Automatic annotation (TrEMBL):
Single GO MF descriptor: ATP binding
UniProt cross-references to NCBIfam families, sorted A to Z: 3a0107s01c2
Domain ABC transporter: 48-288
Protein name: Phosphate ABC transporter ATP-binding protein (PhoT family)
InterPro entries named in the record: AAA+_ATPase, ABC_transporter-like_ATP-bd, ABC_transporter-like_CS, P-loop_NTPase, PstB-like
Keyword Glycoprotein: no
Domain of life: Bacteria
Pfam families: ABC_tran (PF00005)
Keywords of this entry: ATP-binding, Nucleotide-binding, Translocase, Transport
Length: 303
């Protein structure tokens, strides 16, 4: 693999060049449009790619043999029944599993062509480039302003005007108008939906490339959920978004492509191990899935 860490000048240059070559990259699948008739490039650039990824927690195999790409400027949804390894795979996409005791990832995860788990790769830089928004909004016990400014400060980002950066991040997360007059107040004073948009703004503030979202609307009411979904579709133009959701309607509403996972019992170990059943355009997954298990899940016959 390239010896440069993500974030080094070489890698950034390579990334830019690779992105410019997006139209010549390997196609994920041929498709003229998505479920919502959004026009998409025929040959999307694959920002991330899993190849035969297996994840273990100690001796327990949580996920087996996942291979799939994640396209640039698209939303990819990971769906499937509880315990099939959606969050585990999501966390392997920015080395968040490194923080879990006993967790081990085998196989390859490539980010812009580079082995993310390769020697010399800095996991902190990986997580800056590939940010994560969690199920429960988790603002820091700080002011709204400091929640946004924290990441750029600790990562030593070269910032001309922190005030401008804070405003931009909050604007992109569709929160600025609601908080601009109370930036110095505690983030805990915001509603759950506002807190989640603050967490998205906080993620954006360190200028990521990819945003991972682990059931970001699970603790929100329907109105806050609609705002976050609207926000996702706006952010897609600038970022690559990967979302884990239990809500199939949500996947159908926002995702360009969808991956369906399930868990099967290993006859030898007795473990319930997650695996990827099918990955395709969201429209295809919902209207004409190739695998019976996908169809059963989509139609509510199982899971
Ligand atoms: N930190 C951990 N330590 C040990 N086992 C874990 C850990 N996290 C997840 N697991 C196990 O790995 C398997 C996959 O869990 P994971 O949370 O990835 O599934 P999921 O599909 O996201 O589930 P859900 O939809 O319920 O959130 C489960 O059997 C779970 O118990």
């Amino acid at each position: 693999m390239n010896s440069a860490t993500p974030g080094s000048t070489d890698t950034t240059k390579a990334a830019t060049e690779t992105a410019a070559d997006a139209d010549t990259a390997t196609p994920i699948s041929t498709r003229p449009a998505n479920f919502l008739n959004r026009r998409l490039p025929t040959n999307p650039f694959q920002v991330l790619e899993c190849t035969d990824v297996h994840v273990y927690y100690g001796g327990f195999q949580a996920v087996r043999g996942v291979s799939m790409p994640f396209a640039h400027n698209e939303i990819t949804a990971l769906i499937g029944p509880s315990g099939c390894g959606k969050s585990t795979i999501l966390r392997s996409l920015n080395r968040m599993n490194d923080l879990v005791d006993g967790a081990r990832v085998e196989g390859q995860v490539r980010y812009r062509g580079q082995d993310m788990y390769g020697k010399g790769v800095d996991p902190i830089e990986v997580r800056r480039r590939i940010g994560m928004v969690f199920q429960k909004p988790n603002p820091f016990p700080k002011s709204i302003y400091d929640n946004i400014a924290y990441g750029p400060r600790v990562t030593g980002m070269n910032v001309d005007s922190m005030d401008e950066l804070v405003e931009q991040a909050l604007t992109r997360a569709a929160l600025w108008d609601e908080v601009k007059d109370k930036l110095k107040q505690s983030a805990y004073g915001l509603s759950g939906g506002q807190q989640q948009r603050l967490c998205i703004a906080r993620t954006i503030a360190v200028q990521p490339d990819v945003i991972l979202m682990d059931e970001p609307c699970a603790s929100l009411d329907p109105i806050a959920t609609m705002r976050i979904e609207g926000l996702m579709t706006e952010l897609r133009d600038q970022y690559t978004i990967i979302i884990v959701t239990h809500n199939m309607q949500q996947a159908a509403r926002v995702a360009d492509r969808t991956a369906f996972f399930t868990a099967t019992v290993d006859d030898t170990t007795g473990d319930r191990t997650g695996e990827l059943v099918e990955f395709d355009l969201t429209k295809k997954i919902f209207e004409n899935p190739a695998d019976r298990r996908t169809e059963d899940y989509i139609t509510g016959r199982f899971g």
